[in-house]
Write a structure and sequence with these properties.
The chain has three domains: 156 residues, Reverse transcriptase/Diguanylate cyclase domain (Alpha-Beta Plaits), CATH 3.30.70.270; 58 residues, DNA polymerase, domain 1 (Orthogonal Bundle); 166 residues, DNA polymerase, Y-family, little finger domain (Dna Ligase, domain 1), CATH 3.30.1490. By secondary structure, it is of the alpha+beta class. 38% of the residues are buried. It has a five-stranded mixed β-sheet. A five-stranded antiparallel β-sheet has the order 13-12-14-11-15, covered by helices on one side. About 5% of the residues have low confidence. The structure holds magnesium ion (MG). Magnesium ion binds next to β1.
Length: 408
Amino acid sequence: MSPRSILHLDADAFYASVEQAADSRLRGKAIAVGGSTRGIVASASYEARAKGVKTPMPTSQALRLCPELILVPGDFEKYERFSQLMFAYAYDLTPEVEICSIDEGYLDLTSQRSGQPRESALRLALQIKKELKITISQGLASNKFCSAVASKMKKPNNFIEVPAGTEKEFLAPLPVRWLPGIGTKTEPRYLEAGITTIHQVASLSLPELERVAGSSAQDLHLFAQGIDSRPVTPASADPKSFGEQETFDTDQLDELFCLATLRAMIDRLCRKLRREGFAARTLSLRIRYRNMEDVMRSESLNEPSPLENDFYPLLQPLLRRSWSRPKPLRLVGVRLSNLHRALPDPELALTGLPQKSMTERLHLAEATDQLRRQFGSDAILRGHDLWLKKKLLTGEKSGDSHSSPSQK
Ligand SMILES: [Mg+2]
């Protein structure tokens, strides 16, 4: 089988670059996105990085390092528009595009004739630079792992090709933290064992590697040799939203009960999001009165999230805006939409969202998901679950609940 041609593209300092592209006054200046609203720099321009500003970093620290830093609030809709345009140029080359996050993706260019993938990649970068005024870095290799590493090795505005057959030597000198699954938390284990480079990982026997890497030893061993057979998977049949609704047995006037019901729905929907690798940005609330009149209201987060805690604060304001009291409610429902394959990759992503806090919160959520899978959904109850249970035991019952992923 002849080698594949996989291109990984990764926009440089994406949020900050988009801000500079959209406003010529910001070009050539040290800017940071997100710092004014979140207290943490989510993305910094290369001018700011030259002064030592990193992501994520507390805004106060960034300002000490770079007093002239311009803080720009994040505008996720603008980033989405740029992202869609950027990937539109990628789709001009091939339908085999796997979008991993708002600013990263793989293209399978294997079907292009020999010599062409490289030219196509360079043309793509030029086109994006000319039309969108942002730069990307790209890696071209025979597999996903090597192409991703190549794209991230020497940013910005760079292109690195790893010729087929040289994958192993390309990876050999790199620190072990470039391997998938080895991050700031796990790297020390390898360093303590005297393993600092990918070359060393590749040279160990599998049982030796298992002592440090446990069950992931086999995958890691293959990655370290530059072997990765994962296909580029174009997103096609992804659902567009996840929703759930519930018809009450008795019409409701109790706002707290409705809120607790809605929160429990959000919990289940977010678990579903995480299981399928999505994050959502928009929450829609639906209520129905006794006369079957429906009201629907939506609210969006600034950034997509897979975590119920991020959606809770939207619920009560939405419910109050939608509900004309004292008309009792027959049905409530929520839908999470504007879905993104946007879970940050804590191991490879070097810029973007404040990785640490999101990664930690995600780990906590995944740990509770795991407990629920093992011991049942009652293994962990939140305040509103207890409240709902109590309410059910004291006689008030609610009716059918059904959920439906939707393609609409
Ligand atoms: Mg990037």
